[in-house]
Design brief:
Number of helices of chain A: 10
CATH class of the largest domain in chain A: Alpha Beta
Number of domains of chain A: 2
Mean pLDDT of chain B: 92
CATH architecture of the largest domain in chain A: 3-Layer(aba) Sandwich
Structural class of chain B: alpha/beta
Radius of gyration of chain A: 21 Å
Order of helices and strands of chain B: HEHEHEHEHEHHEHE
Mean pLDDT of chain A: 94
Structural class of chain A: alpha/beta
Distance between the termini of chain A: 20 Å
Strand content of chain B: 15-25%
Number of strands of chain A: 14
CATH architecture of chain B: 3-Layer(aba) Sandwich
CATH superfamily of the largest domain in chain A: Alpha/Beta hydrolase fold, catalytic domain
Number of strands of chain B: 7
Shape of chain A: globular
Distance between the termini of chain B: 45 Å
Number of helices of chain B: 8
CATH superfamily of chain B: Vaccinia Virus protein VP39
CATH topology of the largest domain in chain A: Rossmann fold
Oligomer: heterodimer
């Protein structure tokens, strides 16, 4: 997958993707009241922007995702998190669409966040970084879209926290979003989800190597805390049937339990592996900030307690997708969004995909999910006046 | 997953419904299945169509075909829609499967300027004869379920339906008797002929006043 440089953009070609400085003249006013700028934004693109700039799709990544949607990850070397969906003739057909994904504000893969240097002090931001919201992330993305010279996105799509950003885009910039696909998402973070996030944050904070957030200055990394946070979170991304199918009560490289606290069970070993590989690619303070942003997200509260008010008068075409076994962002949350959209007679499709893979299903090979995306995009493209697929779309 | 949907393949009774819809109008099809009617209306009459469908398979097929369809249910989801949002709300062969047909009908005429409703007529002579002669619940082409597994929980006759419309203050703008193939029937002129001979009733309704 090669990246094509969008017109009129200067780039620094280090790891794959681009980097741009935004908001030098006009800082971004964050929800917490702080003015932040300039901001560096790392992003990646696939496909080509058409002449009338009408074929751009913004992909919003999830909590621990990044803009390497279809590139090998520069640290882990693993394929991009949606590489199955991106390419010629695929769901996000790079022969037809111009795909953009940027690392979120507060992230740790190149966009301004707590591990980057605060220009005012010359030191890493650490806990001096302002607390950010999903709305702030979207403001930054909007600046990037301005910078790329795109007035109106053909589609904004994302799963989980990415889906929250999609809903935020539809609320804040309805005229700039022709179609929107919030996947496995919600219009607010539930009490249970805030609770899980708090467990993760406390695990990080309890690690002595966190050093009150100053670990970068101290030359340390709170690897144990961050790994535990990841292990707890990872359970919420799966489902009981998926865990059972994959591991059952199988033992790890042994015939009998060892009467100790080693990883006797395969599921323990798996989680430890998930935790230990995560710390190589993610920053602990970023994890604190981004989980906080998700916790604060409540689109109804921002609109006088009525979610429908977030979408009043919208002309965006919506496709809401949930998965049957997702207990982190259960179908009821998607349905609440659908009800709000119906209440303003919005153009909405809603599909609950049957899957036993839990929340992570949106990242996995789910043919019915992919067919839904393809069909919805096809319908939206016809209404947007984009050319049809050249050939039969790969199933 | 692409469905083959063209003019020729639209079921006859759906074509009857489609003919009642003005070009360029806004349509909500409740119980839209895989969206054959919506697809036809979009292509042939430039209709801005939305659908509600209970079965996941139906929704998935419709959305994969580029139609705006939500997974939902006439009994629970109609209340969300604002009044006057559509020109037509269509309920084809579904009224008898709803828990509260009366409420559904009221919502349809709140949401839409007009409602188009079709349902199997339980007053058909074959149904009557079946019950009279066999003494068992009728199973016919249009009512092809046994009593214990039928989704159809609120059967009515053409006359029942007209009575309900009167009670709810609903105007019957058009009524068409359909035969078992979904074609319009020529009926004798006497009252009650439709109730005796129609396999299905097809009605276009509007609010009084």
């Amino acid at each position: 997958m090669t990246a094509h440089e969008p017109p009129g953009v200067s780039v620094s070609p280090t790891p794959p993707g681009f980097k741009v400085e935004l908001g030098r003249d006009r800082p971004i006013r964050l929800d917490c009241g702080v003015e932040l700028g300039p901001i560096e934004v790392a992003y990646q693109t696939y496909g080509r922007l058409n002449a009338d700039r009408s074929n751009a799709i913004l992909i919003c990544h999830a909590l621990t995702g990044d803009h390497y949607v279809a590139d090998p990850h520069p640290i882990t070397g693993k394929p991009g998190w949606w590489s199955e969906l991106v390419g010629p003739g695929r769901v996000f057909d790079t022969d037809r669409y111009f795909l953009i994904c940027s690392n979120v504000l507060g992230g740790c893969m190149g966009t301004t966040g707590p591990m980057e240097i605060n220009p005012a002090t010359g030191q890493p931001w650490g806990l001096g970084f302002p607390v950010i919201t999903i709305g702030d992330m979207v403001q930054v993305q909007a600046r990037l879209i301005d910078h790329l010279g795109i007035d109106r996105l053909f589609c904004v799509v994302g799963g989980s926290m990415g889906g929250m950003q999609v809903l935020e885009w539809a609320q804040s910039f309805p005229e700039r979003v022709f179609s929107a696909i919030p996947i496995a998402a919600a219009a607010r973070h539930s009490a249970q989800n805030i609770a899980f996030h708090e467990v993760g944050r406390q695990a990080i904070i309890a690690d002595p190597d966190w050093c009150d957030g100053n670990y970068l200055l101290e030359g340390k990394r709170p690897h144990r805390g961050l790994a535990v946070a990841r292990m707890a979170a990872h359970i919420t991304y799966l489902s009981e049937p998926a865990l059972h199918q994959k591991f059952g009560r199988n033992l790890q490289n042994r015939d009998t339990v060892a009467y100790g606290f080693d990883a006797d069970f395969q599921v323990e070993s798996y989680l430890r592996h998930q935790g230990s590989t995560f710390v190589d690619r993610f920053d602990a303070n970023s994890y604190l900030y981004i989980t906080r942003a998700m916790d604060y997200f409540d689109l109804a509260a921002e609109n006088g307690g009525v979610l429908a008010n977030a979408f009043r008068g919208t002309r965006t075409r919506f496709c809401v997708v949930s998965f049957t076994s997702d207990w982190l962002f259960p179908t009821a949350e998607s349905r609440a969004v659908v009800h709000a959209l119906n209440a303003v007679a919005a153009n909405v499709s809603f599909v609950e995909i049957k899957s036993d893979k839990g929340h992570d299903a949106f990242l996995l090979d789910e043919p019915e999910f992919h067919a839904t995306l393809t069909g919805f995009l096809e319908g939206a493209a016809a209404h947007r006046g984009l050319p049809r697929a050249a050939k039969a779309v790969r199933p | 997953m692409m469905m083959v949907m063209n003019n020729g393949s639209l079921r006859v009774d759906l074509r009857m419904i489609a003919d009642m819809v003005e070009p360029g109008s806004r349509v909500l099809d409740v119980g839209c299945g895989e969206g054959a009617l919506l697809d036809w209306l979009g292509k042939e009459k430039n209709v801005d169509g939305r659908g509600i469908e209970l079965s996941m398979a139906g929704v998935s097929a419709a959305v994969s075909h580029g139609l705006s369809v939500i997974q939902g249910d006439a009994d629970t989801d109609l209340k969300d829609y604002p009044s006057g949002a559509f020109d037509y709300v269509i309920l084809s062969q579904t009224l008898q499967a709803t828990y509260e047909p009366r409420t559904v009908l009221s919502h349809m005429l709140r949401i839409g300027r007009r409602a188009i409703v079709s349902f199997p007529n339980f007053g058909h002579w074959r149904v009557r004869l079946h019950l009279l002669l066999n003494g068992t619940m009728p199973v016919t082409d249009t009512l092809a379920y046994d009593w214990y597994d039928t989704p159809n929980i609120h059967f009515c006759t053409v006359r029942d339906f007209v009575d309900l419309c009167r009670e709810l203050g609903i105007t019957v703008e058009r009524s068409i008797a359909l035969d078992r193939d979904g074609k319009a029937m020529l009926l004798p002129g006497w009252a009650g002929a439709a109730n005796l001979f129609a396999d299905q009733g097809l009605f276009m309704l509007s609010r009084k006043g």
